[in-house]
Amino acid sequence: MVLNLISNPPPWPGDARCAVAFTFDMDAESLLHLYHREAAPGLIGTSATLRYGPRIAVPRLVEIARHTGIKLTGYVPGWCVETYPDAIAGLVEGGHEIGHHGWLHEKPNTLSREDEERVLLRGIEAIEAATGTRPRGYRAPSYAMSEHTLDLLVEHGFSYDSSLVGDDVPYLVSGARGRLVELPSDYALDDWPQYVHMKEFGCTMPIRSPERALEVFRAEFDAAWTHGGLWVSIFHPFVSGRLARAEALLGLIAYMQEKGGVWFATMAEIAEHIEGLVETGQWHPREERLPFWREPVAPLVTPRES
Ligand SMILES: [Zn+2]
């Protein structure tokens, strides 16, 4: 008998063993313009690497999703929504979800509350203009949620957040203005540590083969399947949409579909399911209040400089 390692998994639709959401953060060149503002126009090689995302990888991922019958969730900075309308149109036509991911990939915890709200509103405007609907979900660029993010998301009508990695199943995060569903993932399901080798962003690890990367992603899936968890990829089109990796992705989806008992959904669908369970009292998720700490912890002693 298997020892269940998740103490309170939610009931998934259709008695599925786990929920799976393929999510992609389409950052394109936002990172380049944010971190190398003056030099960016001259960094054509880096631009070409990043533009591979909206130009080549997104249409490829849309085709993979159509072929396998799954829906994707893309988190897209507002500037990228406006700069690459064809990629966004392809996602929208395919019935995929577009979530909020800042304006130019700014880290929220480096902004004032006013600036964070300005970024949030401008991103909503861009997504609404391109898709016809307001985004329901948000993922903080670089996992960098601020102490104001949750309150701003509640104030501006979001239904879920996917910036934190604090559990294996959905949970609730509450703040001064209300609460939201949190749909967590983990850095193990991010493709940057596996594949990205770009000195411009301080990532110069050896590149793993798709088979090695898939071992990590598949192990997370098998565990979610066994224990009733949630599997949320944090992939990037310019990374996982490259040819051999896209092939491996097809293999991963086939593996999941053959195993069976998987609920493939968009993040908005998962959030809606969880909200329904909470409202009807069918499931009681864990709830955490943000921010965790209001001020620094006073040290008992002062360590020497080493
Ligand atoms: Zn991003």
TrEMBL record:
Q: Where is the NodB homology domain?
A: 42-265
Cross-referenced PANTHER family: POLYSACCHARIDE DEACETYLASE FAMILY PROTEIN (AFU_ORTHOLOGUE AFUA_6G05030)
Q: What InterPro entries would the database entry show? A: Glyco_hydro/deAcase_b/a-brl, NODB_dom, PgdA-like
Pfam families attached here?
Polysacc_deac_1
A Gene Ontology biological process in which this protein takes part is: carbohydrate metabolic process
Q: Which GO terms describe its molecular function?
A: hydrolase activity, acting on carbon-nitrogen (but not peptide) bonds
**Protein family (similarity comment):** Belongs to the polysaccharide deacetylase family.
Q: What is this protein called?
A: Chitooligosaccharide deacetylase
Q: What task does this protein carry out? A: Is involved in generating a small heat-stable compound (Nod), an acylated oligomer of N-acetylglucosamine, that stimulates mitosis in various plant protoplasts.
Lineage of the species this protein comes from: Bacteria, Pseudomonadati, Pseudomonadota, Alphaproteobacteria, Hyphomicrobiales
Domain of life of the organism encoding this protein = Bacteria
